[in-house]
Every structure is written in C-alpha cells, then in structure tokens.
C-alpha cells in the first residue's frame, strides 16, 4: 500500500546510522516490526499475572527424556 508520510529528519538519520539501512521504506518496515514486537511483549507480560493461583499444566516424561543429551543410553559407564 502506498502512503505519504512526513518523517523527522533527525530520527531518520539516527535510524540509518543504527541499522545501516538506507531505504526509507525498509526503515519504516523495520520500525513497524519493532513496534509490533514491543507491544506484543508488553501484552504478554501483562497476562502473566492475571491468574496467580492457576496450577501448572501436568507434564509427562517420555522414554526419550530418560536418555539425556550427551549421555549414552547405557548410563555412561564404559
């Protein structure tokens, strides 16, 4: 979608210096992505304390979990 926007020259220069991106379109795209990520993280963090008394989900150990990474299946004795 084509849109005409007015950009602050100082902000644009700082963004170019930090990112190395020269195209205004690329800078705006990356800025929007960063804004979305930041706001999504805020929303997720705000949900964290909404049910403090909730119990954790039950977990099951599979047979694969018993053989930890880096350990031979026989328990490590050679």
Report on the structure:
The chain is mainly alpha-helical. It has a domain of 42 residues. The protein contains 3 helices and no strands. It is elongated and about 65 Å long. The mean pLDDT is 83. Keywords: Plasmid.
Spatial separation of the terminal alpha carbons: 65 Å
User: Rg from C-alpha positions?
Assistant: 24 Å
> Would you tell me the structural class of the helices and strands?
mainly alpha
Main sheet makeup: none
What's the average pLDDT?
A: 83
What portion of the residues fall into strands of 2 or more residues?
Answer: under 5%
Basic shape? elongated
Give me the strand/helix succession. HHH
- The total beta strand count reads 0
The unreliable regions are: none
Helix content: 40-55%
Number of helices: 3
Give a nutshell description of this structure.
The chain is an all-alpha fold and 78 residues long. It has helices spanning 9-19, 24-47, 63-66. The protein has a domain at 7-48.
């Amino acid at each position: 979608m084509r849109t005409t926007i007015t950009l602050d020259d100082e902000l644009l220069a700082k963004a170019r210096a930090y990112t190395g991106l020269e195209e205004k379109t690329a800078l705006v795209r990356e800025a929007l992505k960063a804004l979305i990520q930041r706001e999504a993280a805020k929303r997720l963090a705000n949900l964290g304390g909404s049910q403090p008394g909730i119990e954790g989900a039950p977990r099951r150990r599979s047979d694969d979990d018993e053989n930890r990474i880096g350990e031979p299946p026989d328990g490590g004795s050679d």
